[in-house]
Design a protein that fits this description.
- The chain has 114 residues and is an all-alpha fold.
- It has one domain.
- It has 4 helices and no strands.
- The chain has helices at 2-18, 27-44, 52-76, 82-107.
- Helix 1 (2-18) runs parallel beside helix 3 (52-76).
- The radius of gyration is 16 Å and the shape is globular.
């Protein structure tokens, strides 16, 4: 189990970078959260059900999205500080931009409809 976790620490770091703009959380905390979820995923993983890397990546992204959703709820309730609100708005803009890039990239993927 430890070997599995150690092999995927770089993946956890990369996924944490995807969520660097979570308001009020420094990168170190986001990365720590990803590492904790990775370790938890290793304990729960059933090898008969597929690829551990895919399972762990999904678990880490889901967990970090939950953190973001908590902040979104705080925003809706008006409970974000001005700094958190500014960071949250930046994160929303970045996600929209990434979504557009992904959609455009699919147009150039071999075998996809243009």
């Amino acid at each position: 189990m430890e070997e599995r976790v150690n092999q995927l620490l770089p993946l956890a770091t990369n996924i944490a970078r995807e969520f660097d703009n979570i308001p009020g959380l420094p990168h170190a905390e986001i990365e720590l959260a990803a590492h904790e979820v990775l370790a938890h995923a290793a304990r729960l993983f059933d090898p008969a059900k597929g690829d551990f890397a895919a399972y762990a990546a999904r678990a880490m992204r889901n967990s970090l999205r939950e953190l973001l959703e908590e902040l979104a709820a705080k925003n809706t309730e008006g409970n974000l500080s001005s700094e958190e609100r500014e960071e949250y708005a930046g994160y929303v803009r970045a996600n929209k931009f990434v979504a557009v890039l992904r959609r455009e990239a699919k147009k150039f993927k071999p075998g996809s409809a243009a």
